[in-house]
Write a structure and sequence with these properties.
The chain has 315 residues and is mainly α. The chain has two domains: 154 residues, Tetracycline Repressor, domain 2; 140 residues. The protein contains 17 helices and no strands. Helix 4 runs parallel beside helix 7. It is flat, with a radius of gyration of 21 Å.
């Protein structure tokens, strides 16, 4: 009994974390992780060649863990501004359920595990790409760009664009034009997606002193740039069909979704600055998620059908 009491008093003295398992899940940013895993899987399956299914599973696991590590490191560094914003105030660190030091350790351990495991079991190139992605998101974007420039999302968006390229490299041990196109689709999609969000969350960003585009350049400039980026991403998303690593179903779907994306952006651009722009901005933000998921889902579907037909000897 005395030993139990002594241990209990030691636990209190060192201030053990009150975090639950669900708090650690939140640190991984599961919504972002799910998109990362999905796009990485598409890149892996779209790549020419073959990878052992077990190694493929290890690769996707490592990419998922690396994405979670990036999320944890982001929350570690941004704990001060997370506490100021309604959208993030209930995260584990600002809510006081876990210390920043614990989150930093957690993020670094996950980073090391994901990169080393991917390098040992799959190939060094994919591991280096994963390491660079974690570094880019945690250091270049989170520690530098996010608080210093309204172009934070434009440049920082590269971090979220690498997963399909990493998946491709896991199979081919190379970076090709096809994987660069998959990268560019997400890279060009990111600014209009997040700027649409920032149009109706600008007060939160202002409170946290984050120089998002609407707060620095104004809503009118932001709306115009949203429209320009949709004009860029729409044709780029059709390139997999034009380049021959996607079929006509994907090409027609990507083209139709691109037109719809441009229409949503047009409505945001033409909406008067003020309350009248909030509704179209919210609609565009919601559609942007459907857009990216949709074109990658159709591409994945085509890939799986093609592989099934090959296995059956029908093509």
């Amino acid at each position: 009994m005395a030993l139990v009491e002594k241990n209990a008093s030691m636990d209190t003295s060192i201030g053990l974390s009150e975090a639950s398992a669900s708090d650690y899940v939140v640190l991984l940013k599961p919504r972002v992780m799910s998109l990362v895993v999905f796009t990485a899987l598409v890149g892996l399956l779209a790549a020419p060649g073959h990878i052992n299914p077990v190694l493929a599973g290890i690769a996707i696991l490592c990419i998922a863990v690396g994405a979670g590590a990036s999320g944890a490191l982001n929350m570690w560094y941004d704990a001060d501004i997370d506490a100021m914003m309604k959208r993030t105030a209930k995260r584990p660190i600002p809510a006081g359920r876990i210390s920043r030091e614990e989150v930093l350790t957690f993020g670094l351990l996950l980073s090391a595990f994901s990169v080393v495991t991917l390098g040992l079991f799959v190939n060094v190139l994919s591991a280096l790409l994963l390491a660079f992605t974690i570094f880019f998101y945690a250091v270049v974007y989170t520690m530098w760009l996010k608080r210093s420039t309204p172009q934070n999302i434009v440049i920082g968006g590269a971090a979220g664009s690498f997963p399909p390229m990493i998946g491709w490299a896991c199979v081919t041990n190379s970076v090709s034009m096809e994987s660069i196109v998959l990268f560019m689709i997400i890279f060009l999609w990111t600014p209009p997606h997040f700027w649409a969000l920032s149009l109706f969350m600008s007060d939160d960003y202002e409170k946290a002193k984050i120089p998002m585009m609407p707060n620095v350049m104004g809503p009118a400039s932001t709306k115009f740039q949203i429209f320009l980026y949709t004009l860029l991403v729409a044709p780029v998303a059709v390139l997999p069909w034009i380049m021959g690593f996607a079929g006509p179903a994907y090409g027609l779907f990507a083209a139709a979704m691109g037109v719809a994306f441009i229409v949503y952006a047009w409505r945001v651009w033409r909406a008067p600055v003020g309350k009248d722009m909030i509704k179209p901005a919210k609609k565009m933000f919601a559609f942007s998620i459907l857009y990216l998921f949709g074109i990658y889902a159709v591409l994945l579907g085509e890939i799986l059908v093609r592989k099934a037909l090959l296995l059956a000897g029908l093509i």
